[in-house]
Amino acid sequence: MARRRQLYEGKAKILFEGPEPGTLVQYFKDDATAFNSQKKGTITGKGVLNNRISEYLMLRLGEIGVPTHFVRRLNMREQLIREVEIIPIAVVVRNLAAGSLSKRLGIPEGTRLPRSIIEYYYKNDALQSPMVAEEHITAFGWAGTQDMDDMVALTLRINDFLTGLFLGVGITLVDFKIEFGRLYENDDMRIVLADELSPDNCRLWDSKTNEKMDKDRFRRDLGKVEEAYQEVARRLGILPEAGMRDLKGPETMQ
Question: Of 61, 183, 188, 228, which is least surrounded by CB within 10 A?
């Protein structure tokens, strides 16, 4: 990649100016955070694996008609994406009780829920991303009623597809968090899946043993974090061709 100007740096990714208008380069870091950045660390090779896993899942979702911001993978740590206006709401889908749901409601972790539950969180680090209702979202103008209808419809399709896809490789999709953005093309606007899909924002358990295969291994100091991410990629058949060799990220311009 040519030298690109850095536009934004988040907890797990950096966004650079894209090679043409309306595009960005998304770079995946090895940095890991948990508990609203109270815990920080590094998971060696995580960026390489998440780039490949997210590419694979975005492409598979595209095949069934789910619109995404993904264009193509550029190298081991970067992918080209469409520039979208991110809706400041994280959408969480829960199929089994785990994490904060178990703590809030006292439901034993691993309990299968009567039906999949969708929750919304306002993306604001200073406020520790509080849970909000659809009434908050529409009242404060973070997303309109039609936006919400589109997001819910896409979320249910994504959950159905990914649940089956992971089950096919012996993994239970416990829950996951996704983000959406507004993609403007000429005079049209549509809601598309943005950000990433990876063990960073999906709870993935081995279907037979319930062994955790996601960032919970980092959150809870369970060890073998890198191995868990690699195992997810291995089961999906997408381990990097060159193994876990790292690549230097693009240089930034002021």
Answer: 188
In whole angstroms, give the CA distance from residue 230 to residue 205. Answer: 14
Query: What are the residues facing 170 on neighbouring strands?
Result: none
- How far is residue 238's CA from residue 132's CA, in Å, rounded to a whole number? 36
List, in order of start, the domains of the chain with CATH numbers. Answer: 6-83+224-236 (3.30.200.20), 85-206 (3.30.470.20)
**What mean pLDDT value characterizes the chain?**
92
Beta-carbon contacts of residue 244 (< 8 Å; ≥ 6 apart)? 44, 45, 48, 230
204: part of which helix (H) or strand (E)? strand 202-206
DSSP 12: S
For the chain, the straight-line distance linking the first and the last C-alpha, in angstroms and rounded, comes to 17
Residues 6+ apart with CB under 8 A from 161: 60, 61, 64, 66
In the chain, DSSP finds a helix count (H) and a strand count (E) of 6, 13
Q: What is the pTM of this model?
A: 0.91
Query: Which residues sit opposite 86 in a β-bridge?
Result: 181
The strands making up 70-73's β-sheet, listed across from edge to edge, are 6-9, 13-17, 23-28, 78-82, 70-73
Identity of the residue numbered 141:
G
Task: Answer yes or no: are the C-beta atoms of 141 and 110 closer than 8 Å.
Answer: no
Q: Is the model's pLDDT at 247 over the cut of 60?
A: no
Amino acid identity, residue 115?
A: R
Query: Which tokens in the block code for residue 99?
Result: 């994490």
Percentage of the chain modeled with pLDDT above 90? 84
